[in-house]
Write a structure and sequence with these properties.
About 30% of the residues lie in helices and about 25% in strands. By secondary structure, it is an alpha/beta fold. α3 (about 75-85) packs across α4 and α5 (about 220-230) packs parallel to α9 (about 310-325). Bound molecules: flavin-adenine dinucleotide (FAD). Flavin-adenine dinucleotide (FAD) binds near residues 275 and 289.
Length: about 325
Amino acid sequence: MSILVVMEQRAGAWHRMSWEALAAAQQLGAELQQPVSAAVLGADVSGLATELAGKQLARVHAVEHGLLKDYTPDGYTVALRLLIASAKPRLVLFPHTYEVRDYAPKLATSLERVLVSDVVSHRVESGELVLVRQLFQGKLNVDVRFASEPPCFASVQAGAYRADKVMAGSAAVEKFTPEIAAAAIRTKPQELFRESQRAVDLTGAAIIVSVGRGIKEAENIPIVQKLADVLGAELAASRPICDGGWLPMERQVGSSGQTVSPKLYLAVGISGAIQHLVGMKGSKTIVAINKDPEAPIFEVADYGIVGDLFQVVPALVEEIRKAKG
Ligand SMILES: Cc1cc2nc3c(=O)[nH]c(=O)nc-3n(C[C@H](O)[C@H](O)[C@H](O)COP(=O)(O)OP(=O)(O)OC[C@H]3O[C@@H](n4cnc5c(N)ncnc54)[C@H](O)[C@@H]3O)c2cc1C
C-alpha cells in the first residue's frame, strides 16, 4: 500500500512528532515495498517542502492555500480530502498530536473510514499490515488489521518511532492547491494559547531523581528529595504523583509532561508505563529501583535494583554521602 504521511507545522516550524511519523512511514514503506510520500499544509510551505525533499520520499506534496494559513479542522479536512482523491494513497499516517486528534477522526469519518489512533508499533504478516495500539491505559496491546477498502488512516503515538531514524534522500516537490471555499470553514482561529513559562525546566537537568506511586504517600516524598539533594539532582515524578498534588504538575515526566534526556535518570518506584517511558527513554543512563523484578522499567534500565525503595534509597543516600566525604 502506498503511504502518505501528513507532517504537522505551525508558523513555519515542524512539530517534532512529525519526524517520528515520517520514520514510521519510511519503515512501513520499506517493509511493504511501497512508495512513501509526505504532505505539508499551509499558506506558503515552500521552505518546509524543500526541507522535506531532502528525505527518502517518492514525492512531497506542498498543499497551499490562503485559508490554510491558520489551522482549522474544516480547512484541513477539505484540503486533505482533495489531496487523497488526487494522490490515492492506501494508508494515510499522522503523528498523534492534539491537532490530529481534532481533525483526523473527522477526515476519516467523512470518507466512511475509521482512524486507528495512537499506534505504538507494527509488523507485517504475510504481506499484511498489523498495527498495534494500547487499551486500558496501556494494560493491553491489541492488533488491528484494516478490513475496509483504502484509504486507511492511522496515527502514531509520541515516542513510538525514533525521529533520528528518518532516512535522507531526494524527492520532487509537487505543489497542490486545493479548492477551499471560505464558507466551508466554520471556525475562526483566535490567537494561539501559550502556556505560561514553566518555573521548573527539567529538560536541561543533568541528573533527575523521579518518583512514582511506589512511594505510597505524599508524606514519604522527603525520602526521595534527600536522594535528589545529595546528588544535586532535580526531583521529577510520574503522572499519578502530580495528579495527586504530591508534586507540582511541572515536575511530571512523560507524554503529557516534560520530555527529558539527562545524563542520569533514577526511576524510584515507577512501573515504566509507555506514557512515562516516552518522556525519559532518551536519558543517557537509567537506573531503576523497583520491588517488582518484572516491572517494565527494567527493560529500558541500564542498572536495576530490585528491592524496597524504603530500604534502598536511604542506604544509597548514606553511601553517596560517605563517598563525597
Ligand atoms: C493519555 C495518558 C497520558 C499519560 N501521561 C503520562 C505522563 O506524562 N507521565 C506518566 O508518568 N504517566 C502518564 N500516564 C499514566 C501512565 O499510564 C501510568 O499510569 C503511570 O505512569 C504509572 O505511574 P507509576 O509508575 O508511578 O505507578 P504504578 O504503575 O502504580 O507503578 C508503581 C511501581 O512502584 C513499584 N513499587 C511499589 N512499592 C514499592 C516499594 N516499596 N519499593 C520499590 N518499588 C515499589 C511497583 O512494583 C510498581 O512497579 C498517562 C496515561 C494516559 C492514559
